[in-house]
Amino acid sequence: xxxxxxxxxxxxxxxxxxxxxxxxxxxxxxxxxxxxxxxxxxxxxxxxxxxxxxxxxxxxxxxxxxxxxxxxxxxxxxxxxxxxxxxxxxxxxxxxxxxxxxxxxxxxxxxxxxxxxxxxxxxxxxxxxxxxxxxxxxxxxxxxxxxxxxxxxxxxxxxxxxxxxxxxxxxxxxxxxxxxxxxxxxxxxxxxxxxxxxxxxxxxxxxxxxxxxxxxxxxxxxxxxxxxxxxxxxxxxxxxxxxxxxxxxxxxxxxxxxxxxxxxxxxxxxxxxxxxxxxxxxxxxxxxxxxxxxxxxxxxxxxxxx
Length: 306
Description:
Oligomer: single chain
Strand order of the largest sheet: 1-2-3-4
Number of helices: 15
Shape: globular
CATH superfamily: Hypothetical protein af1432
Number of domains: 1
Radius of gyration: 19 Å
Largest sheet: 4 strands, mixed
């Protein structure tokens, strides 16, 4: 229900023709089996009780539709569609594995390699006279991605997806209100940035974001993310999987490989991952985990004056 409702708000029924042909390319289709919540769909339901399964494909599509709604620009829309194309299995868990806790961008360096491996995608880009660099350098488009605490399509969609399905702070009516209140403004750096027409909506979105930031810094989430990172690192070191497989395979296949190994240590870690009770989560020390703060624009001015 959530996905259908959200897509309807973003006018998915009238997807522009140029976008339709890109939805079937192999690298994007793979993202249908890469969960948005970093592999936690396979984790203990006592800790993670998501309303619906959200894939990186779902997120990529809604980001693209948000960008098109706000810009009607083909290149920016495609940059939004493919901004997560190099996402590995378990997403940011692999950043944890790579000890990139703060920015959580360590896997983005594989983006060019992933795109260049998709002949169908390359052919479509050539037909549309869009340079590969324009897709790889998606951060150049401030509506697609921007530095915190600024708001962008990737960040706004993340708040909506997470706020509805994980923290459950957002309902369908809230999503309607948010989408109908957004507008592109010029910020202090004269960049295009997503903002809000009304202070009340901006304050609500800030509150939703703060709650997400809280759960993403919780002991339970830190422990489970680090545990799956440990499972993955151990499996790579043992030769059960390869690092490159994380970028070409799916989470279901990787978990099947884990389960097929008769390794007591791995089996114990997997059992903990799948059955952990929040009351039994041990305390662990982690470096500063990514801060998900925002300070959105309201009619072109920051909601919170700095």
